[in-house]
Amino acid sequence: MDELWWDTARAGGIVAWCLLAASVLWGLAMSTRTTPGRVRPSWMVDVHRFLGGFAAVFVGVHVIGLLLDSFVDFGPTDLLVPLASSWRPVAVAWGIVAMYLLVAVELTSLGRSQMSRRTWRVVHTLSFPTFALATVHGLTAGTDRNNLLWQVVLWSTAAAVAFLTVVRLLQIGERSPAGPPTDAAPPWPPPRGAAWPVGPPIVQRDRAATVPVSRPIPDRRGVRSTP
Q1: How far apart are CA 5 and CA 68, in angstroms?
Q2: Is 64 inside a domain boundary?
Q3: Is residue 215 part of a domain?
Q4: Per residue of the chain (227 residues), what is the pLDDT tens digit?
Q5: Separation of alpha carbons 19 and 34, rounded Å
Q6: Is residue 184 a part of any domain in this protein?
Q7: Which pLDDT belongs to residue 156?
Q8: For the chain, what is the radius of gyration of the CA atoms?
Q9: How large is the angle between the packed helices 2-32 and 148-175, nearest 10 degrees?
């Protein structure tokens, strides 16, 4: 029975990390528009939320499995307070902080309609440190940390996330609007309440006054005459 709960904790942690990685990669694929073909945006968002929500569910499975397992004898304080565990406190702390960040991201995603877009975006950016901390936790805690296949999966996925993140940052840099030139002329006339520019006034040209008066104008009888 003890091995059952330990295997449950291990499986829950691995599945939770895989779902979190898939959610982050899916979100980056949406933001960088690297998805193949034409996919409905609403369907993409639903899949992204589904992956993140199930990642939180399997984090719960991971924690419950550790609580019920008697091999290490984890208590609620050990799994909820960083550095409180006597068994690999630093490695466990990475996972605890990642769990709190994931819960914050998921709660703000559920209540997105009740908050400003700026607030939601700032909190949603925590998905990146969440993935990083969860990856470090997977590499330093548990019996699978020395598994070569597990290490290859973690490092290759982390490289893919890093690559798409760089692509996204480059896209943001290209789309950012350039500021106005420093020598740009001020608007004329200035807006109400604004200070008038210092220096000689700008002479406005009247287009109606630029019509040449010496141009020959034909009369109705076809005789060319000049005014």
Answers
A1: 6
A2: yes
A3: no
A4: 657 888 899 999 999 999 999 999 998 888 887 766 566 667 788 888 899 999 999 999 999 999 998 878 888 999 999 999 888 899 999 999 999 999 999 988 888 888 888 888 888 899 999 999 999 999 998 778 888 899 999 999 999 999 999 988 888 877 655 544 444 444 444 444 444 444 444 445 555 555 555 555 555 554 554 44
A5: 19
A6: no
A7: 94
A8: 32
A9: 20
Q: Pairing mode, if any, of strands 224-225 and 217-218?
A: antiparallel
Rounded Cα distance, 184 and 129, in Å? 42
Q: Sign of the CA dihedral 31, 35, 37, 43?
A: negative
Cα distance from N-terminal residue to C-terminal residue, the chain: 112
Dihedrals φ, ψ of 46, to 5°?
-60, -40
Q: What pLDDT, on the 0 to 100 scale, is given for residue 17?
A: 95
How far apart (Å, rounded) are the C-alpha atoms in residues 108 and 106? 5
What domain range includes position 84? 2-174
Sign of CA dihedral 201, 204, 209, 210: positive
Instruction: Give me the pLDDT at residue 86, please.
Output: 87
Q: Is 165 a member of any domain?
A: yes
Residue linked to tokens 């605890």: 96
How many domains would you assign to the chain? 1
Beta carbons within 8 Å of 89's beta carbon, 6+ residues apart? 83
- The answer to whether the CB of 79 falls within 8 A of the CB of 85 is yes
Number of C-beta neighbours around residue 124 at 10 A:
16
- Adjacent-strand bridge partners of 217: 225
Residues in the chain: 227
